Amino acid sequence: MDAALLSRIQFALTVGFHFIFPPLTIGMAWLIVIMQTLYLKTKNELYRTISQFWIKLFAISFVMGVATGIVMEFQFGTNWSEYSRFVGDIFGAPLAAEGIFAFFLESAFIGVLIWGKDRVSKVFYWFSALMVALGSTLSAFWIIVANSWMQTPAGFHIVNGRAELTDFWSAVFNPSTVPRYLHTVDGTLITGAFFVMGISAHYLLKKKHLDFAKNSLKIALIAALAASLLQCALGHYHAVQVAETQPEKLAAFEGAFETEKGAPLLLFGIPDAEAETTRFAIGIPKLLSWVAFGDFNAEVKGLKDFPRDEWPPLGITFTSFHLMVALGSYFILLTLVGIYLLYSGKIYTHRFYQKLLLYSIPLPFIANELGWTAAEVGRQPWIVYKVMKTIDGASFTVPAVQILFSIIIFTAIYIVLFSAWIYLLRKKINDGPGESLEPGKEVTI
After folding, report:
1. Quick one: residue 286, left, alpha or beta (phi over 0 = left, psi -120 to 50 = alpha)?
2. Of 11, 13, 10, 23, residue with least CA distance to 363
3. Which member of 119, 209, 227, 358 has the lowest number of beta carbons within 10 Å of its beta carbon?
4. Does residue 434 carry a pLDDT above 50?
5. Phi, then psi, of 441 in degrees rounded to 5
């Protein structure tokens, strides 16, 4: 057994499971702010009822996110001790900032949000919701900073075999921080909005809590459309950054082996690394050159321009990227149809569309995981791009059998935690909002 490979599998398992929860809670937090703002503005109890229900589901998911996030940090000292020794001076700073400035802010006000409804003023309660949303979004920023530095390291030099920080702000705002952060945060808004839409659709299908469901669905649908459309621009912004700073990753995304001017944007294909070709390729001529460089005739480097041992794992990188893009396109289409049905007055009786919303709840979660996979696998074989290879960052002292055992244990624990999360969500959903609403009362946005 390969200890380094097992360590990578273990980290992928723990991060992948943890990454279910932060996108959901960040996205829901901002929707709750919108609902609380409407309540504060109109004094209509309907908005308060809506926000209180979603706060309950937010709290359950927040606790799960905290519990699953702790495990990851321990792995840096156990399975990735060589990496930790090399980048500790740099990597520790954003993680410390996340704990001190972001997580503390979020945690301090979430107690008010959960238990302070009748104990504080309406304005302070709204402020607490805003602080939770800001804290969770700021927390994501520092995590993205740490990860982006691994993608496009900056603001450091190497002394005695260790990377030492020379420019804090260059390290924080390295070339990939802003595009990756905006792309990720917008993904959280899509995740939260689809979660709210799907559960609201569930109530409509069951003909329960109808006024609550209609109003929640309207708010979430408008947010989902805006976030889905915005993701097109942010995805393009991120693609430009990847083209400029990680050209072999872009080549892997597109299954491009040959350097080409006027490169096509691939819609479908099956990359074959051994034959160094992409079979059954279907693409739009010259569009990749324009997307990446703003010039239909710009040159896009192919994988053959890079050493073979520095190619990312092609199948996983290519597939995860294209599935993510396909899901993003689906989100736009689904929400555009939803807006049409909303303003034509058909959305609350269109059972097929409601079922689509319900069954689409998992899809943004999957898209998040696919995007993370494309970014991380696409960086390989580097743990710090062009500075340190992944194999060199693993610990030498932890036996493979112990890592394998930990993977089995983690898997069992995560199955239990996931089951508990689903059980608690179902229980709250079955209980419903818990307060009656004025019949026929709808939100005006």
Report:
1. left
2. 23
3. 119
4. yes
5. -80, 120
